[in-house]
Specification:
- By secondary structure, the protein is an alpha/beta fold.
- It has one domain: TIM Barrel (Alpha-Beta Barrel), CATH 3.20.20.70.
- The protein has 12 helices and 8 strands.
- It has an 8-stranded parallel beta sheet.
- Helix 10 runs antiparallel to helix 11.
- It is globular.
- The N terminus is likely disordered.
Length: about 325
């Protein structure tokens, strides 16, 4: 790689393992109630106050398809870029196509997250194009992001199973991984979009990617079948340093039937903390943004459990 092609790494806590808060994007995109820009900005502000330093803040998708993500530019213009302690806040923008990338770069995101899906049916449903076309576009967008000096990662979606085609093989996942590696993503995420994976699957996929590349890994789990937290702990045991989670456990994919909520940030922080893994967040501090988004969405209770059971010891 030439010196001219070097781009900065995403901002990550020095401690290593950290949580990427996806509530403002993945947490809200499948909710019935559409929150306005000011409410979404306030959620981000409260998450930053709670100690979050890396967030997937917006999605640059067609608002006609995902109205919950309308106004991404307005959100980016208003969210805090510096935390109260003076540290930098890293805002990630999800991008599905070249038009979305144009918008993300213009809006000044700190990092771009691209998506490539393992199966043809889901790829057409989610991105309106087949796997090969998406992979080609993903490499082009990685190169464009690098040229613009903006770090770009790739999420391999439906890595554990597809809502339309069923089982997804290791080779299907590796097809995507191998295709996008030439674009030099700064990070690769393996995503259990519909919450069907178990710890054995996590070990299998992490080790398969590791055998191919030393690119930093992130993991994205849903708790649809109550395996999300076990999967997250297994991912950490396998050396994954970044874990996506959504405050309150909200979330889901609007193009994947029965894709229920993400693992909850507060529940994950509790599980990691009790396991001796410090991610720089406290369960008590996360109560405020959880209560805020729960009230904003008109929900009686968050999906995550800590808001009901509380931290322990209390």
């Amino acid at each position: 790689m030439s010196d001219a092609a070097v781009v900065p790494e995403p901002t990550r806590p020095a401690r290593g393992v950290h949580v990427v808060e996806v509530g403002p994007r993945d947490g809200l995109q499948n909710e019935r109630l559409v929150l306005d820009v000011d409410t979404r900005v306030e959620l981000v502000r409260r998450l930053v106050e709670a100690g979050v330093r890396r967030l997937e803040t917006v999605s640059f998708v067609n608002p006609a398809r995902v109205p919950q993500m309308a106004g991404a530019e307005e959100v980016m213009a208003a969210v805090p870029r510096t935390a109260p302690d003076g540290s930098h806040v890293d805002h990630i923008g999800l991008v599905l196509n070249e038009r979305g990338l144009d918008r993300a770069l213009t809006a000044g995101v700190d990092e771009v997250n691209l998506v490539a899906i393992t199966t043809e049916t889901f790829s057409h449903r989610n991105q309106g194009a087949g796997v090969e076309d998406v992979l080609g576009a993903t490499v082009r967008m990685l190169q464009r992001s690098r040229a613009a000096g903006v770090p770009a990662s790739v999420t391999v979606s439906a890595a554990f199973g597809c809502p339309f085609e069923g089982e997804v093989s290791t080779e299907q996942v590796m097809r995507v991984v191998r295709a996008v590696l030439p674009g030099e993503p700064v990070e690769m995420a393996i995503a259990d979009t519909i919450g069907v994976g178990v710890p054995a699957d996590v070990r299998r996929l992490v080790r398969a990617v590791r055998a191919e590349s030393d690119v930093p890994l992130r993991a994205h789990f849903h708790n649809t079948r109550n395996t999300g937290y076990a999967n997250a702990l297994t991912a950490v045991e396998e050396g994954v340093l970044a874990l996506d989670a959504s405050i309150g456990g909200y979330g889901g994919c609007p193009f994947a039937p029965d894709a229920t909520g993400n693992i909850g940030t507060e529940d994950l922080v509790y599980a990691l903390g009790r396991s001796g893994v410090d991610v720089g967040l406290r369960v008590a501090d996360l109560a405020d943004p959880c209560d805020f988004v729960t009230a904003a969405l008109g929900a009686e209770q968050a999906t995550a459990q800590l808001g009901r059971a509380g931290d322990w010891p209390g």
